[in-house]
Amino acid sequence: MITDLEIKGIIYSGHLARRLFERNIKKDIIKWLILNGKAIEEYKDDYPCPSLLLFGEYNEIAYHLVIANCEKSLVAITIYTPDPNVWEDNRRRIK
């Protein structure tokens, strides 16, 4: 888990900004998920920075947030509510 002291700066990708607007998700949820979410998948080979898929429930709503952990900042890439046809218990992909 990432602590408040480790947040170097959060960059919101253009894709994330569109998704926040389209899905009516508040920006505050991003920082909350970074501080409190659980890493459920890790993408070490992502370019240009390794990334993580975080899961958390905020006000009883499940969210997934993809963040890239770059050298000087965290980049929030996308956020969504997990599809129950794809995710078991919002944490594991259905095979």
Summary?
The chain has 95 residues and is α+β, with helices and mostly antiparallel strands.
3D structure, described in words:
- The chain is of the alpha+beta class.
- It has one domain (4-72).
- It has helices spanning 14-22, 28-36; strands at residues 10-12, 38-43, 51-58, 61-69, 74-80, 87-88, 92-93.
- The chain has a five-stranded mixed beta sheet. A two-stranded antiparallel ribbon has the order 6-7.
- It is globular.
Task: Please write out the topology.
Elements: E1 10-12, H1 14-22, H2 28-36, E2 38-43, E3 51-58, E4 61-69, E5 74-80, E6 87-88, E7 92-93
Parallel strand pairs: 1-5
Antiparallel strand pairs: 2-3, 3-4, 4-5, 6-7
Rg estimate, integer Å:
13 Å
Strand residues, percent: 35-45%
Uncertain segments are none
| Strand order in the sheet with the most strands | 1-5-4-3-2
What proportion of the residues is helical, as a percent range?
A: 10-25%
DSSP E strands, number: 7
Number of helices: 2
Largest sheet: 5 strands, mixed
SS class: alpha+beta
- Average predicted confidence as pLDDT: 88
Q: How widely separated are the two ends?
A: 26 Å
The overall number of domains is 1
Q: Which shape, going by the Cα principal axes? A: globular
SSE arrangement, N to C: EHHEEEEEE
List keywords for this structure.
95 residues; alpha+beta; five-stranded mixed sheet
